[in-house]
Amino acid sequence: MPTGPAYLIAFLVGPLEQTLGALAFSLPCFLVLWLTSGESLTIPLSPRGLWSVLYLALFGSLLGFLCYFLILSRLPAATVALVTLITPVLALTLGMTLNREQPSASMLIGAALILVALGAYLFGDRLARLKAEAAALRTPE
Fold it and tell me: 114-125: b or e for each residue (b if 16 or more CB lie within 10 Å)?
């Protein structure tokens, strides 16, 4: 069994608190880097851009993390990890549907490969089991 301060902290603090602590620690670091980089402190933001940032902050981060941790508490980690693989395909589909984006052929091929691989992972075991059962039924005893 692992020991040490990092393991103890991870054991005593839940995943949501760990994420909140990491974000609370990293935000001041980003601010210091921004101030020392010499970049302008003003950000030209259109109303559409402002709504986009608010949407990402609320749904993409806050609600997304809450749902992710809720699902993680109820499903195996290996299954939940597959969500990160389907996210680019979903983003590509939303961009095509809502923003009339035209993806390249290689992007569509990549999305199809991701879907095929996820399908093979999710249903491959069932297919192998069905084939084994069918072979067992055909074989006389």
Answer: beeeeeeeeeee
pLDDT score, position 116: 93
* Closest residue by Cα to residue 20 from 80, 62, 72: 62
Residue-wise pLDDT for 46-62, tens only, equals 888 889 888 888 887 77
Could you read off the pLDDT of 7-17 as tens digits, one per residue?
556 667 777 77
Round to whole Å and give the CA distance between 61 and 23. 11
Token pair recorded at residue 49: 């851009």
Q: Give the closest residue to 70 by CA, choosing from 85, 80, 82, 78.
A: 80
Amino acid at 141: E
Which residue, chain included where needed, has tokens 């095509």?
Answer: 96
Say how far apart CA 106 and CA 109 lie, in whole Å. 5
DSSP 139: S
